[in-house]
Amino acid sequence: MFKETFGVESELGDLQETTREELENRLYTRAENLFKEKEELYTHDALYSVARIIYLQTIDALWKDHLRTMDNLREGISLRGYAQKDPKQEYKKEGYNLFATMHGAIGGDVLVKASRVVITTETQEDYEARLEARRAKQQKLMTRGPAKKEAQKPQTVKRQGVKVGRNDPCPCGSGKKYKKCHGVSDALNP
């Protein structure tokens, strides 16, 4: 389990003759040595940046899970009233327990993620090659074809006749008002 969590083998020796406290101490010192090795490999600023990112991501994910769990709790808490328990007090108690569980899980998740971190440094040549590839891609996109013309302003549609009022006689000569004759079809088909 130590290997699954931290990604390294632990030299625990014979587990039959060790007590729980001794085992905890061995595992703790092994994990502590693992982090000291990482401190020697990487700069303090790099480790601090990575740790900050891991903390934020972990807290964000666990907080979202906590909020979803609280929503589920809120939906089901009313059933506690049937058991002659105050739903409000039960909600407070369960909510606090869920928060405490989430708070405790943050440290463990961060520890697991931080133990598996491998920071790679990019050489100057790799950086320049990546930058040059990006510039070439941008240049290719810019020279692909003629630039798009500016969007032309839409032309306003102009009426080709005299505006007929709704209450004026219809120009078809039927003698009806425009709104009762051809105005009906114009209103339905704008």
TrEMBL record:
Gene Ontology BP term (one): protein import
Alphabetical list of SUPFAM superfamilies matching this protein: Helical scaffold and wing domains of SecA
Protein species of origin: marine metagenome
Record-linked Pfam families: SEC-C, SecA_SW
GO CC annotation terms, alphabetical: membrane
UniProt protein name: SecA Wing/Scaffold domain-containing protein
Domain SecA Wing/Scaffold intervals: 9-113
Keyword Cytoplasm found: yes
Positions of region (Disordered): 139-190
Keyword tags: Cytoplasm
